[in-house]
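Protein modeling request. Please complete all fields; requests missing the sequence field cannot be processed.
Requester role: graduate student
Desired output: 3D structure, token encoding
Chains: 1
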Amino acid sequence: MASTIKYLYSLLLTVIVVSATAQKVPVVRGTWITNVASTAMQSPENIRQTVAHCKRNGLTDLFVVVWNRGVTMYPSKVVKQYIGIEQDPLYKGFDPLQIFVEEGHKAGLRVHAWFEFGFSYAYKDSSEQQWLKRYPHWVGRDNKGQLLKKNGFFWWNAIHPEVQAFMQAMVVEVVKNYAIDGIQGDDRLPAMPAEGGYDDYTKKRFAEQYHHAPPQDPREPKWLQWKADQLSAFGKNLYHAVKQVKKDCLVTWAPSIYPWSKEQYLQDWPTWLTEGYADWILPQVYRYKIRDYEQTLKAIDEQVPAGMKNRIFPGILTSLGDGYRVSDQMLTQMLQLNRKYGYQGEVFFYYETIRESIKPIYP
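Delivered output (363 residues):
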């Protein structure tokens, strides 16, 4: 009898532990909400309508842009201290982030502050950029000494301590002042084009450690890994800074696919996951063909330990500015593949193009 009771007690404990673990796995049905090619956050009423629409269609998480083209969508004392501009003038008279938080929580949705531009300070034209004028020593440099630019984006030197201090101060400001559920960096935070690292500060730091100048090849393996390690260290510090202010605030990252993410933007995100400074990873599985989408999911399976798979929520591309828009059929197939491979959610880029597409999927 005693052995039977002991067995039943052990079985009960197992059930409780498994149940508790299962409850920790969130269901994430999210979308990124941008201020580009979108009216979602142009007015308080638009924000209320956006939240209501997301709720009706079964979404759980809103990733709201707060940092774009060198200015914030919310009133920021930190940014004002640096360049004298408190808020993007498009939002003068109201605070989009505060309204999203209030309305989102009323609707039972999680709201994340998305620092979209990360360590990029300008897009296409940097000539009139306040940041470049005031902090010229912050800029990244390529191996020809030119301003660090990639795909139209101008980049700071993400390894410079002053740049990192600014970014951390801005993120922590949001965590302190808003009842947000999480903060997020994407393929620009923490990130820097691999072509960078040739500014005076970074060259000196590398030389102090290795006793020789950095290689001229920006992707020489040791040099590339060293740069990636500096950004990983920043990501770890930022994670702990956020948790120190608000322990239950999620810190999530939405990088590109690995290893491309490290080879191109120094984002060694499997390390972030395994070393414990990523609550969720939302890899940008932006593919135009369903075959390629599935192959990418398989690759992620090999990169992520089985016990951490519940922290992965694939990012799905629903449209681009060039006119691309995913078909309803392919969207349905991608969601089916996510479930097939054990992913309990996804996040769509971006809100405007999923108004109708997700309705039959998330009733």
